[in-house]
Write a structure and sequence with these properties.
By secondary structure, the protein is of the alpha+beta class. It is built from five helices and three strands; from the N terminus they run H-H-H-H-H-E-E-E. It has one domain: TIM Barrel. About 30% of the residues lie in helices and about 15% in strands.
């Protein structure tokens, strides 16, 4: 990852920055690379890990369960606020907005297996871990693009 994770003090400062408004969005830099791309000396391998599939459960664990952030606030940090920052007509369920919706079960426990995921890579520190909070359905532009652990069949 770039920048790499640093000290516990740095991690706590990020959490406090979200709490006090210094930081106002949460986003991922989902940067998967194939085994071929990563199979180089460390200094020459591309930075990045996959993160899209685990962003929600990890965020729920760290911010909501451990640090007592309110769920609607965390959802806002991951949806409306980034869309507003990028001047995108998204991140809201307002009348006329794009039907981009993520339905999730915040308390569902599951074991993440990066090799069974939907990314082109499997380099994740969460692989094999039990996570809590699972995306059930993703709708983009009114079209279901993910449901019940599966991508829709090509037509």
């Amino acid at each position: 990852m770039n920048p790499p994770l640093r000290t516990e003090e740095d991690r706590q400062a990020l959490i406090e920055g979200l709490r006090d408004g210094t930081l106002d969005i949460i986003a991922t830099d989902h940067a998967p690379h194939t085994d071929y791309e990563k199979d180089k000396e460390f200094d020459f391998a591309p930075n990045g890990i996959l993160g899209l599939e685990t962003a929600l459960p990890v965020t729920l664990e760290v911010l909501v369960r451990q640090n007592k952030f309110k769920l609607p606030f965390v959802v806002d940090l991951m949806t409306r606020r980034p869309a507003k920052l990028m001047n995108l007509p998204a991140g809201t369920l307002a009348n006329g907005a794009a039907a981009d919706i993520c339905l999730f079960a915040p308390d569902e426990k599951w074991v993440y297996d990066a090799k069974m995921g939907f990314s082109k890579s499997s380099n994740s520190p969460w692989s094999g871990q039990t996570l809590t909070g699972r995306v059930k359905t993703t709708i983009v532009g009114g079209r279901v693009v993910f449901s019940n652990g599966r991508l829709p069949q090509a037509r």
